[in-house]
Design brief:
The chain is mainly α. The protein contains twelve helices and no strands.
C-alpha cells in the first residue's frame, strides 16, 4: 500500500508528527495508570498507535479497508482466535441476511429467526461450544442497537455504501474493548467520515481521549480513597458519602465513552 507522504506540505507533516506524539503520551498515561486494564484496552495500545500512524498516511481509498483490517486484528487480540472467528461468522451471517435479494418482510423474518437462535444459545437452551458462548455478549453489543439503525438507513438510503463501510460500521475497533459502546448511527457514520480537515479531526479525537482518560483516573481516585464500603455505612454522614461517591460511577461511563 503506498503511503501518502510525498507531496504533503511541511505544515501537514509537522502536524501529523505532533498528533502521533500526543497519542503516544495519552497511551503512555493509560499504561502508567493501568486505566481500564480489565477491559483489554492496554493490549490494544500498540495496535492503536501503529494503526493510526499508518492509516493517516494512506491514500483515502485505502483507509476504509485498512480500518476494517485493523478492527479485526483488535477483535482477535482481545477475545482470541476461536471466539473472534465465532464473532466474525455470526456478524457476517446477520449482515448477509440483511442483504438477501428477497422481500423486505422475508429478510426481517429470517433476521428475527437468527436473533432467536442466538438468544437460545446464550440462554443455554441449545448446546454451543465455549467459544460461541464467549462470543455472544460481543455480538450482542455490536448488533442489538446498531442493527436497527442500519436497517433503517439500508431501506431509505439514497446512495449505496461500500462493503468496507458496512462492515467497518459494525466491527468498530473500540467495541471489542468496551462492550458498553456508544450507539453510532449508520447515517452519521457515513456522513461524518472525513467531513473536515484531517488534522483537526485527529486533534478533536485526541481531546476526547484525554478527557476520557482524566475521567477514568478521577473515578479511580474516588473509588479507592473516598467510596466507603456498605459495611462502613452506619450514620447519615457515611450514607451520604456512599450515595455521592456511588453516583460518581457516571465518571467511568463518561470516561469510557469519550475514550
Amino acid at each position: 500500500m503506498p503511503l501518502a507522504v510525498a507531496g504533503r506540505e511541511l505544515g501537514w507533516i509537522l502536524g501529523y508528527l505532533a498528533v502521533v506524539a500526543q497519542l503516544v503520551l495519552v497511551l503512555a498515561a493509560l499504561f502508567l495508570f493501568h486505566v481500564e486494564e480489565d477491559q483489554g484496552l492496554l493490549a490494544l495500545g500498540p495496535l492503536l498507535l501503529g494503526g493510526f500512524a499508518v492509516h493517516a498516511l494512506l491514500p483515502r481509498r485505502w483507509r476504509r479497508p485498512f480500518f476494517l483490517a485493523l478492527s479485526l486484528a483488535g477483535l482477535f487480540a482481545i477475545v482470541g482466535l476461536a471466539t473472534g472467528a465465532a464473532v466474525l461468522a455470526a456478524g457476517l451471517l446477520l449482515l448477509g441476511v440483511c442483504h438477501l435479494p428477497i422481500a423486505w418482510w422475508a429478510r426481517m423474518t429470517l433476521l428475527a429467526g437468527v436473533a432467536a437462535l442466538l438468544a437460545a444459545l446464550r440462554l443455554g437452551h441449545l448446546p454451543a461450544p465455549a467459544a460461541a458462548q464467549l462470543a455472544l455478549p460481543v455480538i450482542a453489543s455490536m448488533f442489538m442497537f446498531r442493527l436497527l439503525l442500519f436497517l433503517y438507513d439500508l431501506r431509505h438510503q439514497r446512495a449505496p455504501s461500500s462493503p468496507w463501510t458496512r462492515l467497518g460500521y459494525f466491527f468498530l475497533l473500540p467495541n471489542f474493548s468496551f462492550l458498553v459502546f456508544p450507539v453510532v448511527g449508520f447515517g452519521a457514520f457515513r456522513r461524518t467520515w472525513y467531513d473536515g480537515e484531517e488534522l483537526a479531526i485527529y486533534q478533536k479525537g485526541l481531546g476526547w481521549m484525554l478527557r476520557g482518560a482524566s475521567h477514568l483516573v478521577l473515578y479511580r481516585v474516588v473509588a479507592y480513597y473516598l467510596m466507603p464500603t456498605r459495611e462502613a455505612v452506619h450514620d447519615l454522614a457515611s450514607l451520604l458519602q456512599f450515595l455521592v461517591t456511588s453516583y460518581c460511577q457516571l465518571l467511568r461511563i463518561s470516561g469510557q465513552f469519550h475514550l
